[in-house]
Structures are given as structure tokens and as C-alpha cells.
Design a protein that fits this description.
Layout (H helix, E strand, L loop, with lengths): L1 E8 L6 H17 L4 E3 L13 H4 L6 H13 L2 E9 L7 E8 L5 E6 L5 E3 L5 E3 L4 E2 L5 E5 L2 E5 L8 H9 L4 E3 L6 H19 L2 E4 L3 E3 L5 E3 L3 E3 L5 E4 L5 E8 L1 H9 L8 H10 L5
Parallel strand pairs: 1-2, 2-3, 4-8, 10-11, 11-12
Antiparallel strand pairs: 1-17, 3-4, 4-5, 6-7, 9-10, 12-15, 13-14, 15-16
């Protein structure tokens, strides 16, 4: 199956309504350009100091998901709602949650970020999700008309075991909506995305934020579409833009049939490692 995918790369700020308005306009533009799968970046609806996150959080379904569902139905497209801050009842912390919307407007899958990011930049700016976010505990793979899609978020990229689990659960493409920083992105973003695609012989679709947040963190941009061989099909710049590529889902089986690495995965080694590793690891 051939389809056009479009990654929405833009700079979100601290005004939630304005961010959602801008994201919606870019989804409309992507759909008008023929995209059948449109992907937004991580926390596209709100980027500000972590102390404000719970106040900006909302339930799913909620206002933002409803608005995106309307767009999915209007244009008959799939939308990956990169991630938003999800309110978790009366809990003090929220979740950083990605969800996939079908052309019907239904939410097909929801994924709460498992790995929480902490960084100290060279300029001293600190960002730590642990203080304001609840980590998820369930991987997400869902069958769609486009094929089987696995969901991750940003910092998850550094943990190959999650991508391997998604692949063993049947994923043929894996989404990586991100707010990957320029500090780490310049060194690691592209090489890690290509590695995850090559290791698992899947498409990697990574929509990233760009610009400089009110917190002082600068984002890397360079949204990327990578095929199962590790070939970069499309790459963004550091500006706000739509990054598009045509993918052929048959490419997954083609690559896997030519190089059968997934058939040689030694799950017993991982099991042995986790049974014998030191307790402080």
C-alpha cells in the first residue's frame, strides 16, 4: 500500500488555544496536499514551565482530541496527535500521551510515555519530566488500514528494547513524535532514528518541534521519515514546515524477506540478562 505521510514541524508555545489553532491549520494544509497520515509533534498543544503542566492538561477524549477527530473525519485521514498533557483524575501529575485517530474520528490507540526525560544543557537550563509526569507502563500497537502502527514518544527513542517489543507485537511503522532538543539532537537524533528503523526493519515517522521554548530550551527540528532499510525518505530543516514522503508499506516485507534478522532475535539472552543483572542496575 502506498500513501503520503506528512510530519507537522512547528514551534508550540505557552498559549494552548493558539497552539491547537496552528496545529489544526497545518493539518488542514497537509490534508490539502494529499497526505493520508498526518503526524504532530510531542506536546504540540502546550510548551511551558513544568509547574504549569497540570493546569494545561485535559482528558482524552477532550477538547483537543475532539477537534482533531473532526479534522480526521473531514479529510478522511489518520492523525497521530503527537502528544498532549493528559489529566489523570485527581492525581497531582499528568501523563504525556500520544493517540492515533482514524478517518472515522475514533481513537484507535493511546500511549502514555514510558521513559521520562531529564537533561541539563551546557547553558545550565534543566528540564525534568519526572517531577510533573506519570510514566506509562503499556506498549501500544494497533491494526489500521495503513498497516500495524506502534506508538512511542521522544525520549523513548533511546531505549531500543521498546522498539523491539513493538516490532515483535507486529508493528510495521513506529511513530516518534518529539520535542527533541538541539543540544542532544545535533549529536543523536538522526543516527538513533535510522538505527531503530534498521534494527527493526520498520518505517520510522518522527515529527519534531522546532524553535526556542519560553523555558529557554531550543528544539532540533529535522523531522524525519526513515524506511525499513534505514534510508531517509524526507528530512526537515530547523524551520516551521510540513515534511512529506510517499511510503510503500510493502517495503517492510521486502526488506525482512531479504535480510531475516528478526528471525534470529535471541529472546532467551534478554531473559537471562534480566534474571541475572545486579539489583542496582
Amino acid at each position: 500500500m502506498k500513501l503520503k505521510v506528512t510530519l507537522v514541524q512547528f514551534a508550540a508555545g505557552a498559549r494552548k488555544e493558539k497552539n491547537v489553532e496552528r496545529a489544526s491549520a497545518l493539518v488542514e494544509e497537509a490534508a490539502a496536499g494529499g497526505a493520508k497520515f498526518v503526524l504532530l509533534p510531542e506536546v504540540f498543544s502546550f510548551v511551558a514551565d513544568a509547574s504549569l503542566w497540570r493546569e494545561a492538561a485535559e482528558e482524552i477524549p477532550g477538547p483537543t482530541s475532539t477537534r482533531l477527530a473532526t479534522l480526521a473525519r473531514k479529510h478522511n485521514i489518520h492523525i497521530l496527535a503527537g502528544s498532549i498533557l493528559e489529566r489523570r483524575g485527581n492525581r497531582r501529575k499528568c501523563s504525556n500521551t500520544s493517540f492515533l485517530i482514524a478517518p472515522s474520528g475514533d481513537i484507535l490507540a493511546r500511549y502514555r510515555k514510558m521513559h521520562l526525560f531529564t537533561v541539563i544543557q551546557p547553558d545550565g537550563v534543566v528540564f525534568d519530566e519526572v517531577h510533573c509526569t506519570l510514566s506509562g507502563d503499556q506498549p501500544a500497537v494497533v491494526e489500521t488500514a495503513m498497516g500495524r502502527v506502534g506508538l512511542t514518544i521522544c525520549y523513548d527513542l533511546r531505549f531500543p528494547e521498546l522498539f523491539r517489543v513493538l516490532t515483535l507485537l507486529g508493528a510495521e511503522m513506529i511513530t516518534v513524535p518529539s520535542a527533541f532538543t538541539a543540544f542532544t539532537g545535533e549529536a543523536h537524533w538522526k543516527v538513533l532514528l535510522r538505527a531503530r528503523a534498521i534494527e527493526n526493519q520498520v518505517f520510522i515517522l518522527a515529527a519534531n518541534q522546532t524553535g526556542t521554548a519560553v523555558t529557554g530550551i531550543r528544539f532540533h527540528g529535522h523531522s524525519l521519515v526513515v524506511d525499513p532499510w534505514g534510508t531517509v525518505l524526507a528530512e526537515g530543516s530547523e524551520d516551521e514546515e510540513l515534511v512529506s514522503a510517499e511510503i510503500d508499506t510493502a517495503r517492510v516485507e521486502e526488506v525482512r524477506s531479504r535480510l531475516g534478522a528478526l528471525r534470529h532475535v535471541r529472546g532467551d539472552l534478554l531473559k537471562r540478562l534480566y534474571q541475572t543483572r545486579p539489583k542496582n542496575h
